[in-house]
Structure formats: C-alpha cells, structure tokens
Amino acid sequence: SKLLEVKDLHLKIEDAEILKGMEFSLEKGEVFALIGPNGCGKSTLAYTLMGINNYHPQKGEMIFKGEKINDLKINERAKKGITLAWQEPARYQGVTVREFLALGLKSKGEEVTEEKLKDALNKVAINPYQYLNRFVDKSLSGGERKRIELASLILMHPELIILDEPDSGVDVVALNNIADMISYFKESGSGILLITHSEEMLKYADQAALVCEGEIIRQGNPSDISEYFKSFCYPCAKEEECET
Ligand code: ADP
Ligand code: MG
Ligand code: MG
C-alpha cells in the first residue's frame, strides 16, 4: 500500500496559483524525485506536505499511510513520521550541535545518549569530537549544516523524508554523503521525496516526475525524465516552442 498519496492538490498564495492539481504517490523504500526549474512550486509543495503555517491547500488531498493529513498540524505530522530537510538548513543562534541533535531524539520521545549522537554524526562524515560543542550558526559552512541536519534526521528515523534540494550549496564531498544518506534511508524502509532542479540527482531515484508551473507534466523512470529534461530548450517548453 502507498506511504503517501497526493491527489489533485491546489494551493494559492494570495491570488497566485502555485500548485495546480499536483498528483503523485510513493511507497515505502521508494525514492520519488520531483524535478523542475526554479520557481515551479517544489518548495511550496514541501511546505504544504509538512503543514507549515499558511500552506493550506484549497483543494485536494494529502494521504499518509491511508490517513488524510490535510488538517493535521506540523508537529502532529512530525510525530507520525514525516520530516522535511529544508532547502536552506536553518541556523540556530546559541544552540550547539549536541543540543540540536538531542532535540531530534526528544521529539520522538527517545532517550538521548552520547553514543547515538556520535553514531549519527559519523554516518554523515562529521567528526563528533570536533563538532558536538560547536554552534549551529553561521560559523558552520552550508555543507556542514546540511550534514548535521541529515544527522538529526537519522536520529528521528522518519517514515517519509522530504529532501528539498539536498544538493544545493553543497560541495562534492558532501554530495557523496547525500547519495549515501539516500541509500541509508531507503534501506531502512523510509519513503523519500527527493526534490531537485538538477538532473544529476535523478540517478538516485526509482521514479521521477517533471514539475512545471505547479503541476506534473510528465512522470516515468528517472532516465527517461532525465533525457526529457535535458533535451528541452527550457524544461517546461513545448517541443514546438523550442524550434529556432
Ligand atoms: P521552487 O522551490 O520550485 O523554486 P517555490 O515553491 O519556492 O519554487 O515557488 C513557487 C512560486 O511561488 C514562485 O513563483 C514564488 O515566487 C512563489 N511563492 C513562493 N512562496 C511565496 C509566498 N510566501 N508568497 C508569494 N509567492 C510565493
Ligand atoms: Mg528555488
Ligand atoms: Mg525551492
């Protein structure tokens, strides 16, 4: 059975229609990639699925493990096992890596141990001895914050994980970590919604869909979607619009 089903999802912000009937589903242990150019509504979809304030769909359904979640609050969705890794990982003034990771464990009602924290950091190739007492603020690079955020996700063992452009602002080394992380979550049975605007990321996906202006215009196996995405003058243009 499906882990997540999104049906005819519509969202307006003020008078602008941002999501226009988004529809797809994903299963446990599956990596489903949504690829699309900047501004097509990918992050908006991520916020809507997570239940961020003011991102309430006007129409359509979001169904998680058979249950409609449209009216659940963000923390209720988190408790059910849905997590979002932000496009821009947050900075927390005055919060150490240790405290930040402990929050992830506590949010699941789990005991905080040094062992668990170290283990999660090691999985993202961050040396616990050097980083546990650092602050999660601008003293860390974007790539480091991204990896620390991934470590916190490991501790939350989500059932559904939404990765919003995990490759943005990240160096090649961290990129390998993201690839490892995707396989790690997949093997542990999580479903992954992989949001990206680079076709490079599609090689990690089982299924892919191309999003244009708030809707999916094509869905299929990742290599076909990748070819389609690359072969267009502009990813969302119709074939005839590309002729010169
Ligand atoms: P993507 O993540 O695919 O780059 P976004 O979801 O961030 O796209 O944005 C989709 C569209 O919605 C853009 O045109 C953006 O300007 C608009 N948008 C996003 N958030 C808001 C907001 N809070 N208020 C008004 N417009 C917004
Ligand atoms: Mg963007
Ligand atoms: Mg975005």
UniProtKB/TrEMBL annotation:
Residues 4-238 form the ABC transporter domain. Belongs to the ABC transporter superfamily. Ycf16 family. PANTHER family: ABC TRANSPORTER I FAMILY MEMBER 6, CHLOROPLASTIC, ABC TRANSPORTER, ATP-BINDING PROTEIN. Keywords: ATP-binding, Nucleotide-binding. One of its GO terms (molecular function) is ATP binding. The keyword Nucleotide-binding applies. The keyword ATP-binding applies. It comes from Halanaerobium congolense. PROSITE patterns: ABC_TRANSPORTER_1 (PS00211), ABC_TRANSPORTER_2 (PS50893). This is Iron-regulated ABC transporter ATPase subunit SufC. SMART domains: AAA (SM00382). InterPro entries: AAA+_ATPase, ABC_transporter-like_ATP-bd, ABC_transporter-like_CS, FeS-cluster_ATPase_SufC, P-loop_NTPase.
